[in-house]
Fold each of these.
Amino acid sequence: MKENDIRERLSALREVMRQEGLGAYVVPSGDPHGSEYVADHWKCREWISGFDGSAGTVVVTMDAAALWTDSRYFIAAAQQLRGTEYQLMKQGLEETPTVAEWIEQQQTGNEIALDGSVSSVDYVEDLIEEMRRRGGITVRTNLDAFSRIWKDRPALPQGQVRRHDISFAGEPTEDKLRRIRKELRAQHADGMLVTALDDIAWTLNLRGSDIHCNPVFVSFLLISSTQTTLFVDRKKLPLDVQTYLADCHVDLDDYENVGEGLRRYFEYNILIDRRQVNYSLYKKAQQHQRVVDGTSPIPAMKSVKNPTEQAGFHQAMLYDGIALVRFMKWLKPAVAEGGQTELSVAEKLEAFRRQQPHYHGPSFDTISAYQEHGAIVHYEPTPDTDIPLKPEGLLLLDSGGQYDEGTTDITRTIALGHLTDEQRRVYTLVLKGHIQLELALFPDGCTGTQIDALAREPLWREGLNFLHGTGHGVGSFLCVHEGPHQVRMNHVPAPLHAGMTITDEPGVYLEGRFGVRIENILLITEDKKTECGQFLRMKPLTLCPIDTEPLLAELLTEEERKWLNDYHRMVCKHLAPHLNADECEWLEQACREV
């Protein structure tokens, strides 16, 4: 994006601010559904700043502009903001002011604004309270400035909705609604408004294509004790989907009518999850009925995969593993021959995945990062940044696919040739952390925060660390990042239970040099049961060799060495029957004992 474009857009926003008497305008990254990745229509923060990461907040005053983002994007954001007036605010660092602190420092006046329809209740009320404490600054929540200044703003997405067959979902919609209503009664709620798109898709056993890489569709779902209403553009629903929803006793209404639906809602109270529902709809609900501030039961239900979904994950990993082996067999000879770049190898991997059954596309944009680009945690090559690969150094590939049976997410860091001693040592330490987490045995109900240090301890001993989470849940042909459970340093209270999927992805990122990350998806399963309770462990679902070329095997313990060899035997056992002789020969060599 040209720097002149950013200047012109900031100027247009400031003109609206001047007309409205505002000292600052806050632009979050969200949409009305609390999505991590949003449709083009809601990419206001990207449009006004040029920063295209999935997380960030922009604040614009009459004479300054700043962007807050987390550690995944520090390097990328610095590059994308270069040449603009934006100041990069690195979240999580002690010296970084909060949004409210910075606004107060700018002496912006008595009123600021944001669009409450794309901001969660918790976010807006926290900002309102903090601004009140800082000089009594008022926060206006009903101004969508971009409806005035974004002249060619994309329309709302119109992707078609389709059924997710029970052979993949494993549980009928009627049973899911019955379970949801039971959980609502436990919170003394008569119904709830569901705004998270993956929660809606999961509940109704439907999938869509409105969000890039995420098989969801833009909608709201209103559940009462006796009725269920889907607010959606009906043009997106084929006849078979409409018939299916009628059979499930799900009524239809227009997407824009959700506010009217809240007005007509007839129950005594309604549960609103303040972390998910946007502030504008929360205030609308408060006007018409008693609001129960509670936690949506759907994410916790969705996170525990039923037996059909678990079997689907195994099948999706088999498809993915076949594609990955064929890609990795091709990769090093192709790089040695010359002419390959970060983009070209990402496109080749996608081509191998497209050959697999039931494949719908990537689960996120592939991170294909060579050498120093590997230190940019969420780097995505573009024609402007794409660089050639050489038969030396490290290539970090983080990719995934969407299959009817499940969603995949895998990172492999691959040696393309000669490596430095530092690269080998860091690679081995990251692998040790990865293995230690997979070796963990822990009691049912403990949190990911309590086991996070297991993956970091080998790195901490060497003065190394990483600032992103170690693991996240993964959807069943849904969003690649799924909660509520996570493995990370900062406290996440969601408990871990058998049947959950979780990633294991420690890394090290040395700016200007290289990055290493190794990632598998794991299934949490029951292990021993003692007088101290039920214990759990995590078994790898991902089927793909871990590159042993960079490995300093002498740094592995016997237990770690055994895990690696056992893992590779499992990979060979499952993949070999589906490969030709040459591919099997390559796989056996890649999985040779250490």
Amino acid sequence: MSLSTAFFLPGVSILAESTSPAILMSIAKPIVTFAAFVPYAVLVSTKLEKDAAYFNLKPQKWAAIFLAFGTAGVLSALLIPTWFAGFPLMIAFFAAPCTWYMKFRNEALKGTKTKPLTFLDIDFGKMAADRKAKSAQAGATLRFQKKDRSEQAAPDRKDLAFEVYAGLETILLAALDTRASRVEIALSKQGAQIQQVIDSMRFKREPLAGDIATRIVDLLKGFADLDPAERRKFQRGTVPIVRDGTRIVLTVTSIGSMQGESIRVDIEREKQLSISLAKSGMSEPQVKLIADTLNADPRGTVLVGARPGQGLTTLTYALLGRHDSLTSNIKTLERKFERIVEGVEHTDFDAAAKNDFGTQLQSIVRRGPDVVFAADVADAGSAKVICAAGARSTLFYVGMPSDSVPDIMAAWLKAVGDPKSAADALRLVVTQRLVRKLCLTCRAPYAPNPAEQKMLGITAGKPVQIYKQSGKVLIKDQPVDCPTCKGVGFLGCCAVVEVLPLDTDSRALLATGDVKGAYMLARRTFKCPSLQDAALIKVRNGETSFDEVKRIFAPPPAAAGTAVAGAPKPASAPATTVPAKTNGTTPGPKKQ
């Protein structure tokens, strides 16, 4: 022992000199000492200190007491020459504050319903298992939670099951990093095909080969409280995940088919479906036009249309959300409802029942609702039920896949079968498509050419600036991928909407079967911009680009997607026709 150590620790040098080399060189005794300290530390940190904090029993004071007695116990084992005397003293130091706290705690809570705490109530085996699970979870990036927000156990890195867990993490992390709203996994005997949806566009991911794809899907279904063995019936559940302290809710849907099982994972589905009309991309005049039309006569039919995957469900729920559920009786009949709107009575269509969609809809109408959302009118008779009830007192929202307002109007006439009844019931048509918004960090300004100026309704020769996607910024005079949009050029999406009310004259023309004539008359009467006009307004305002408008009005693509690696690139990844480039000039990437 050095002179300085002996000086500052009087008496210690004498103890050290009298300690036999056999004790100092023993390996087993330090291990036993450490093994005794660990349960004390775990008990104090995970049980007693939390208990004191929960019941507000001076937790800071008890933390200091536990630390002081723990330190004294360790020092007694290390400094007393005879280990067989020091070790029992250490155990006594550990037991004293725990016994003291339990006695103090039980006296303080005496007379309450709280059960007294004793050493018999402490499950050291469970504490060890929880510690092991926590250690294993430390090797995982994502934390899967149960319904009570406790964490699902992650397999240890040495466990063979960790490969499956890591594979699931890889799929989900790639989706989160690229801002995907949905991941789709299609299982087959060869493995799985994976696609993800980013800002309403589909992108292919690298496929999974072999049996691991099925094991990954089964693990995910288990986390979402679905039956992993059930591969044919429709199942839906949710599982929260935590990444870097942020909680994200995944909605997991399992769909069986003749080709195999498909899994759909929607990321924060509730938030996606909870967008109001004002925040959807609809203009203020359009929101006001809907309100004025329906307030003037709250009966009849509103047709709501969009292409598949273009926000039809979100738009319909936004329209339902404008009604006060406290003063209006609102009901729905849906194939599978996507979210519960507060105050709305949702009903799933029972395909196994003897009654068809129209009969179940009629049953809902008999209860006298003020507002009804009908998912579709594909079944014969549904449209006639809507026409009859709408003429009396009910307002119906009817969702219909469509390309345009004339398209959905023609489909409505066909579904009803009687042009006059269909026209008399119709009050309003709302259709939309989703357009990607330019990234404000890297969008590139340019002057439109004469043809583009004409399309935008800008006087020829008038100086004007619009924007196109870039995906690049300048950092130290070097073009690099934009850190905001990850090089895509777009960030988020919004709706391009056409709202068309029908007055008496336009309905009279529609009753003759003249869809185009009724459409043009209503547009002139109410001065409503078409779907294309609404999209061009967003180009003029700098929200999106000409290329994006050309994409959303191009014919639907034949292919499902194009393979990508990592973050998607707009030139190669989108599952759409690549639009022609504009003739404008761009000043290059923005400087950061």
Amino acid sequence: MTSAFAGRFDDFSHWRAALGERLDELCACLADIGFDDRPSGALLASLRERLDGDKLTVAFVAEFSRGKSELINAIFFADAGKRVLPAAPGRTTMCPVELAWDPSEPEGLSLLPIATRLDDVTLAQWRQRRDGWTHLPFDKSQPESLPLALRQVMSTRRVAIDEAQSLGLWQESNPDDNPRPDEAGRVEIPVWRHALINHPHPLLRQGLVVLDTPGLNALGAEPELTLGLLPSAHVTVFIVGADTGVTQSDLTIWRDHLGARQGLAFVVLNKIDALRDPLATPAQVDAQIEAQRRSTAQILDVPPERVFALSARQALVARIDGDALGLAESRLVEFETALSVALLPQRRQLLGRLIEDAAQQIHQRAARHIGEALRQQAEQLLELRGLRGQSSGRLSLLMKRVSSEAMEFEQCHTRLTALRSVHARQGELAMSELSYDDLEVEIDRMLDEIRSSVLRLGARKAFSALCERLRERLLRVQVQLHDTQDMLGGTFGVLNAEFGFGLALKTGPNMTRFIEEISLIERLYAQYLGLGDVLRLARPRFTAQLRRMLVERISVVWDASRNAIESWAREVTSHIDTQLIERRRGFQKRAESLSRIRGAADQLESRIAEIEQQDRQLRQRLERLGAITRSLLGSASGAVDVESHPAAVDVRRARA
């Protein structure tokens, strides 16, 4: 029984595959017309890689025994006919678990030992390495090898409190969150710090990434989880128990780690089957469930429509047994549909917009390329048709004119060299504002301000000041780019008028989206620098982790902004070079044509017929380019109707 989410995700994947085919058609068309433009080729390759490697991350967060793993099994992996993730009473998932598929890596489970928390290496850096991990391959001949291997994420060991404290798993400042010592004074800690499951499940092959996070202890102990992985998730699902309601630890997780992401978070009130009472009427049970749902929304301060009451266990069993009525009673499909609506159309719109913008840019460049060739051929035809019945003296005058125009055209080299020099200096000025060394200096300045503040109470203020300085840098870059664009635009206009260029300036990169990313980082990270984190900020280890995380996270924004500037600069230079090559090639063709005709007068008509044939071919190619671009734009802008998906319709019928 296909889940509503899985069916919708299949449609999304088919749409991406269709877009990839359209992009391949556009590449083939550009090759046919001889359009060898490096920026366009790089852009197409980048888009193809983006489509093939696009990932959608759904993060599940909950305290222990809320049915989180069971919910993941019910939504994504019920087609396996059994539980994929271990789900049992008590603690199951003891470390963060990522489920994904990377065909370049072997299928299996990779586990990072908890002791790596003592190393000066970030979790993101560990993810780029194979050493240090424990790798457990899956035996494809044994169906039970996957769930058996995944039981490793439940592994724990007992250690002295000093060791737990050194690993960040015991905090004197938060005694309520610490594990309970046994008679020997030892506490239980997870064996593993992080788990990566590389498995070719159909949804994972299509780009889904599922992040399964354990309870409050792990969230507080692993800053990179809350500062890196959770903020990067496209949607977060927070699970609480319908039988317990929102507990104090649930509220702490929501307030400290998820509250700032309300617009990207859903709340699931799981285990409604525990509220069913044989002595109560169905209407009374439904009223109790609804009251619990609205109470949960009120306590967490979220809109009621983002809180879903359901039974993950009932849904999983119903899917495995093919029980449509049981699935409807579990109320899972309503949540799956909401999850699809929140995640897939937004992602499809984003990818579609990228494809549309790129397709229009490439079409404009290729059309200009064909248009320039058509213009040059029109000039040749005009000259050659004018030679009909003319003397050889007339032919010599034309050859001298072409030679004179070519020599005059070459004089623009000096101006183009000066233009490139100014353009390069402007680019260096913009890049200097986005120096990685300066970024680290700015972050160190923030940390110095935190250390010098009384009891670290100025942490949030210092962080906000850092973000403001980073935004100011991006604003200065934007002003420099506008100045550069104005300079290039004026010069292009003069060159077009004096030398017959067809130069057209593409709008420079907009720094607004990078400024918004800095603001988003500020909102997500500021919640970890409040009064409740004063003691953590006093620990050098936490401060060092915070520094590494900030450098790594903001460097992503710096990388993207620098790449946008460099890409624009390369495109401008390539556009100028292409125009130079095409103009020189045009002068060369005109001279060669006149030279051949001068040697044999009977070649005039054949040369005219040859150019006319080339003209017709170019126009056909222009029409084909337009048709392929329109097809690509149509595919990219297609709408998504989640509510009409067959899986959602089937369940609504079953409930009726």
Amino acid sequence: MKTDIEIAQSCEMRPIYEIAKKAGIPESWVEPYGKYKAKIIRPATAAMAENAKLILVTAINPTPAGEGKTTTTIGLADALNRLGKRTMVALREPSLGPVFGVKGGAAGGGYAQVVPMEDINLHFTGDFHAIGAANNLLAAMLDNHIQQGNALGIDAKRITWKRCVDMNDRQLRFVVDGLGGKANGTPREDGFDITVASEVMAVLCLANDLADLKQRLSRIIVAYTYGGKPVTAGDLKAHGAMAALLKDAIRPNLVQTLEGNPAFVHGGPFANIAHGCNSVSATKLALSLSDYTVTEAGFGADLGAEKFLDIKCRMAGLRPSAVVIVATVRALKYNGGVPKAELNQENLEALERGLPNLLRHVGNVKDVYGLPCVVAINRFPNDTEAELALIEAKCRELGVNVALSEVWAKGGEGGESLAREVLRLCEQPNDFHFCYELDQPLRTKIEAIAKRVYHAGRVNFLPAAAKQLDEFEAMGYGKLPICVAKTQYSFTDDQNVLGAPEDFTITVREVKISAGAGFIVALTGSIMTMPGLPKSPAAERIDVDESGRITGLF
């Protein structure tokens, strides 16, 4: 059996100008990065009628067994194109952190991938490097301002801005810098975030255009003065140079699926520590060029879908037509207590114990957000008919259909039954609404997410977090939406609690303001904004031969 990278490398890719033509993109908009990928430069005067149906693909809480959300997203778009529907796919860019950490790649899998897979998973068009450079320029200008006399009166003990790097590196979570004497800066405690958790990433993903990007950058709060006044990137006169570094990065990236269909891959925040969606600019461009646009949101629906709906759709004025919730028999049995080594054996009892995790996500999409949905079972060879029938019966009790997805093995052909159900759902009226309203107090909004989406019984705000919330409301930021940072593995803030627990406590330990992105970040449990590498990182299995051919990348 071929590996994902072997399948991708055996694909005969079409020149990017041909893909652009198929998408209806004028040649003058295409700025190629080699033969098979390009930035799209849409003139500000170009019409943008966003009339396509928007389809969100999300999933159950991730497990070591895998779910295949990106694979299903790509396969569904290919299937819709096979059915004669003009369809675009809009995905996030992979971060080098997971590529070299646990996952080893994030461009789909099997015969449902975007290519060139190696480029997309590694440096791609340099967007993440530009974001990291802009983030770190702001950090350097902040420290330089203090070094050069500190005219703004910045309190070095109240600096909130961190440097970033796109790599899992726990050693950088907490550092002390500025050592070595007065000429080398002001000694202080500092730290790094992974690039996808940088507010600059969120700003780029939520900005409509370069002008909006620059305005958002200017609003980023980096520190506070001795008098408690917030200091912004605009105060430091850093936003213009930051925007200059990002002028190309904000342009959506065009690539192709294995079946030669257009795909935008742009932006990549994690949904556990950021808002987890691809860029607004890429999504809107796809909507203007298609009749159906398929997009994804990171991790489980409690994180990615919640933020896609409550943050991205609210800010960008988007309205989804249907939601796909991806699950596997294996992952549900894992939620039911089966060890990873035994997941290939039929176990209806464990499957029934694990099914509530899927049903919770289904209920949230239908009842909290008022959207029609379908469950896509990403089929594995060892799945039995009895197991598939049990899932179908339980979902039918909630009025939701189940479609088998075999896109990993068959590409778009294996997703046609899912595509037909999605088309049916897109024609149904829906009552889309948000989990909370912006004019509610910040605590109430956090509690709404915790209780309505996670099904927590209460939210415990630690004293520091409670004080921060009061300060943010006093500063005039009380009407911003909420971005919860939480473990992706559980509805709770404890990654070891699987299934669909009820009446637990969510602990908010810290709250941060992302004034440029336009949301409040609530950090729960022990979640970190700089991951670490596992005991056996994927990097150990990645290599390149003398001809430049990469191996081990998924």
